[in-house]
Every structure is written in C-alpha cells, then in structure tokens.
From TrEMBL:
All copies of domain Peptidase A1, residue ranges: 1-109
Molecular function, one GO term: aspartic-type endopeptidase activity
Family: Belongs to the peptidase A1 family.
GO biological process, any: proteolysis
Transmembrane spans: none
SUPFAM superfamilies assigned to the protein according to its UniProt record, in alphabetical order: Acid proteases
Any Pfam family matching the protein: TAXi_C
InterPro entries: Aspartic_peptidase_A1, PEPTIDASE_A1, Peptidase_aspartic_dom_sf, TAXi_C
Protein name: Peptidase A1 domain-containing protein
Amino acid sequence: VRADLKGKPLKDAVEDKSLPICWKGAKPFKSVHEVKNHFKPLQLNFGKGNAQLQLLPEAYLIVTKHGNACLGILNGGEMRLGELNLIGDISMQDKMVIYDNEKKQIGWVTADCDRLPKS
C-alpha cells in the first residue's frame, strides 16, 4: 500500500496511535470517500492462492477521530497472533459469508446487504 502512495499528498501519521499504519492529508478527512481515490484495491490471497478476497479502499481504510486514514488490516505478528493476520469487520461489509463446517472452509461473495436475500 505504501509503495502506491508515492507522489500522493499523504504523509505517515505516526502520531495517530489509533491503528499501526495511518496517513494524514493537508486537512483532516471526514470520511473514507474523501481519501479513497488515493488508494488502489487490494487482493488478499488465501491458502495456495485458490481463494482471493478483493477489497476496495472503503473496505480496508478507517478514518480516525483525528481525521487520518488508517489501514484496517492488522499484521498478526505485531498483534502476537503469529502467522495470522486480522481482517476487521470493515473488510467484510457487503459480503455474504458461507461456512462449511464439514470441510472446515469459509467462502464469501459480494452482496447487497441492505436487502435481505430471497429464500
């Protein structure tokens, strides 16, 4: 993410301790919509790359009370989770999650979660 920000009007906001990685603009951001155009979509690969999760900036950025944009995905090693990474609920908005308990797998699909699915 940082490499894609070179030449953009954002600077590291190290003074913001809300999350480990934050950026600030010339003035505080009021919403993700004000900053999302500076960021590219992310693709997270799971397992051997067979499962992928595409995330738009709205699904991985959080604007703090200080008006900074922060990465909403945490490095598990820094959070004492070992090899695991923590993906917050912001990343799963507008996703329908399917649990297969027998195969011990999960899946997801983009969905309009403002409306209930038809049964």
